[in-house]
């Protein structure tokens, strides 16, 4: 199929882009790896596409004030191959699971957040780390915690007249450990279940994805951080948070079992890594 007719706009500034969005019936085009298939299948019919790929300042990738700042036009492959990504190990672990290399060469980090697919990796990473999403609208700039940004499947806290201009990930501190894993039918497919975890000392945070309409974040601190000690906790957690309906690829119970196993394994790994960091 082909997309329905639309107008195309390439603004010269962020303010101009916001003005076009405020006019209504417009969608932002950055990488296009999620938007273009939606247009081709006519699941979406915006009147105008606002191309932000060349807007000044949106291609920035810098570490500042203890945060990794990723602009809205920064490609996933750029982040994956950058020296800066070493400061946020969880992104580095997750990025190879995001689609295929060819898709990451065009897709953007902020685009994945804005698309808000329930099975997407980067919204879960952002939620796990307590990242912040930066928005610009007619009323100026505002910052939304990543855990509050995705409000449902393909739905976010961004207004129709707001542009995601960047995301800020906190840089890893000494003594932190991380884990990431997912199960998909084939590499590059959407995850049937996945986890992103962060551990520091006795504190542990887990974000589950692919099992609900948005990333589900839970405190999973435990006194016995071995995989055997974690399994009862993660199994109970999985049955609590998995609320997606079953489909041809896996039932709700199957996804819960996957999540419980992945969570225990990655939490145990993150605890080991954190302990080694402290020892070192």
From TrEMBL:
UniProt-listed PROSITE patterns? FAD_PCMH (PS51387)
FAD-binding PCMH-type domain boundaries = 1-174
Q: Which SMART domains does the record cross-reference, listed alphabetically?
A: CO_deh_flav_C
Record key words, sorted: FAD, Flavoprotein, Oxidoreductase
Signal peptide residue numbers: none
- Please state what the protein is called: FAD binding domain-containing protein
